[in-house]
Structure prediction request, 184 residues.
Amino acid sequence: MIKRVETKLSRFAEEVRNLSKDDFVGRFERPFLIVQFHEEIMDAPFATVMPDDTTNQPPTPVSGTPATYAGRDMVYSLEKSGRNAFRNMMSVGRSVNNDIILLHSSISKLHAYFRLDHGTNRYFVTDPGSTNGTMVEKLTLLANTPVPIESGHVVTFGHAVRSTFLSPADLHDYIQALRAFNKL
Prediction:
């Protein structure tokens, strides 16, 4: 069974160290986002609210500073987390009910989302009108306008969160290159 990936890139690379490229691609069928938080522009604290559905208690504030993520690449598989009801999209945002949670002050509660077009087997990213915008490569997305995305494209959320969209095969190659240059 394939588990959803949501961890530090270095930890993930260690877990898949012994997989050949074919085994890696066979194990992971969904693309990934490699997420980087830029330290030089990460100074504002953030706050968000975490609902507690199990106890009927009021929401609990979650806060901190994004500097804790600076310099730490994270890897996320584009799969549903079960944290929201959006059936056909993988949501990205600051709120804890997103599939990919990015705790940074320049990230909206629901900042963007990815969808797979099953007819073409292509992924699209959409910004639903976030405050600080989303860019693919150097193209700023218009609100509610899906844009096709390919492996290797850089997606920037807000002012400080840069990510790279990678197919499983390309992520395997990326991890191998990092190992070759002693970057892991």
Q: What stands out?
A: The first helix runs from residue 9 to 15. DSSP finds three helices and 14 strands in the chain. The mean pLDDT is 84.
